[in-house]
């Protein structure tokens, strides 16, 4: 189930990657979010804009195989810490927080790859890379904004390869 107020807009956003692959990728992302996030959250409208806020920590995982491109997760440090606390029962801070950000990306993207394989789309994922965001380098992004209740925002951006 995709959350987008205008279905015509979704069709416009998914034009470059094969439509069925992009739909499976979006659906897999939404399902993975539901599987992993056990803290209160709400999902906003999918957009074609990549957030460019200096306060966000970004981690990127490349996709190869049947589904090529990348997934970038951006969030504020307190958001990642809160998600970690929800998963592990204790606050995640300091060096553990940096490690957790990569592990969170692995968990999310690994679930997505598994869900894609259920549709015959065998997809490999790279190791997570902490990145600085350069909005200019992204072509046809789809960003899923997630508001983590009382903590801040998380953004998951799906990108076709250039």
In summary, what is this structure?
By secondary structure, the chain is α+β, with helices and mostly antiparallel strands.
Describe the structure.
The protein has 162 residues and is of the alpha+beta class. The chain is built from four helices and seven strands; from the N terminus they run ααβββααββββ. Strands 1, 2, 3, 4, 5, 6 and 7 form a seven-stranded antiparallel β-sheet that branches. Helix 2 (19-36) packs across helix 4 (94-117). It is globular. Mean pLDDT is 84; it is low at 1-6.
Number of structural units classed as domains: 1
Please state the CA-atom Rg, rounded to the nearest Å.
15 Å
N→C terminal distance: 27 Å
- CATH topology category name: Chemotaxis protein chec
CATH superfamily: CheC-like
Output the structural class: alpha+beta
The mean pLDDT is 84
CATH class: Alpha Beta
Helix fraction by DSSP (H/I, runs of at least 4) = 25-40%
Beta-strand portion reads 15-25%
Number of DSSP helical runs: 4
- Shape, per Cα inertia axes: globular
Biggest β-sheet strands, sense, barrel: 7 strands, antiparallel
Runs with pLDDT <50, length 5+? 1-6
Give the total of beta strands: 7
For the record, the CATH architecture stands as 3-Layer(aba) Sandwich
Which features does this protein show?
single chain; 162 residues; alpha+beta; Chemotaxis protein chec; 7-stranded antiparallel sheet; 25% strand; globular; disordered N terminus; CheC-like_sf; Chemotaxis protein CheX; CheX-like
Indicate the topology.
Layout: H1 7-13, H2 19-36, E1 41-43, E2 57-65, E3 69-75, H3 77-88, H4 94-117, E4 123-125, E5 129-131, E6 142-148, E7 152-159
Antiparallel strand pairs: 1-6, 2-3, 2-4, 2-5, 3-7, 6-7
Helix pairs in contact: 2-4, 3-4
Domain Chemotaxis phosphatase CheX-like: 59-140
InterPro entries: CheC-like_sf, CheX-like, CheX-like_dom
Pfam family, one: CheX
């Amino acid at each position: 189930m995709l959350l987008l107020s205008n279905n015509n807009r979704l069709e416009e956003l998914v034009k470059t990657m094969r439509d069925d692959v992009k739909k499976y990728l979006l659906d897999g992302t939404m399902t993975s979010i539901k599987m992993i996030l056990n803290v209160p959250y709400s999902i906003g409208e999918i957009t074609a804009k990549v957030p460019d806020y200096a306060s966000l920590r970004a981690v990127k995982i490349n996709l190869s195989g049947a589904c090529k491109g990348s997934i970038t997760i951006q969030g504020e440090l307190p958001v990642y810490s809160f998600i970690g606390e929800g998963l592990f029962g204790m606050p995640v801070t300091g060096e553990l927080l940096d490690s957790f950000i990569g592990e969170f990306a692995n968990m999310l993207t690994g679930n997505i790859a598994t869900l894609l394989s259920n549709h015959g789309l065998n997809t490999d994922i790279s190791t997570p890379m902490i990145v600085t965001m350069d909005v200019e380098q992204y072509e046809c992004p789809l960003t899923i904004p997630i508001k983590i209740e009382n903590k801040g925002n998380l953004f998951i951006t799906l990108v076709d390869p250039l």
